[in-house]
Amino acid sequence: LTLGGDHYVTWPLLKAHVAKHGLLALVQFDAHQDTWFDEERRIDHGSFVARAAREGIIDPDRSIQIGIRTHAPEDCGLSILYGHQVEEMSASDIASAIISHTRGAPAYLTFDIDCLDPAFAPGTGTPVAGGPSSAKILSVLQRLHQLDIRGADVVEVSPPYDHADITAIAGATVAMYMLGLHAERRAIAVSQG
Known about the structure:
The protein is α/β, with parallel strands linked by helices. The chain has a single domain, classed as Ureohydrolase domain (Arginase, Chain A, 3-Layer(aba) Sandwich). The chain is 38% helix and 16% strand. It has 6 helices and 6 strands. The chain has helices at residues 10-21, 48-54, 83-88, 91-102, 134-142, 166-192, and strands spanning 2-3, 25-29, 64-68, 79-82, 106-112, 148-155. Strands 1-6-5-2-3-4 form a 6-stranded parallel sheet, sandwiched between helices.
């Protein structure tokens, strides 16, 4: 579990995890697709997903983005649950869609704090209105115990933009839930093994 930085940090983390675990499904909670790409081979917080898909670091057919509220030139073959869909779905249905789409593949879970509506995470560099509440997304995370998570991160928390530590608390809680998923999965493996 890695904490902090802009979403670019996911690129080297993905490469390191793929070197150890092989091809991964990407489960990305975000307001942005991060699939911008150009001939100059730009790599930054807005292009790392396109790079990962094109270089075979992630399996686009088993990867999914949750909470997207902006548009990019292409989706790189990833499935998308847009913000308005997330609003209409229950937490259980969102978790089921994630688990169903990844189909048991080893997964990397990345959480850009701007996935949350700015009311729940104002301290980020690129907030987008219309996102889910922290309560809803935490409920989704609680239901992902079947996901074979090999690595995870929480990114884009920006303390200078935060108010009353709202975003920091949300980010820390997301990280705590991710660690809880890891602990639950290990406990199940020990009990079965």
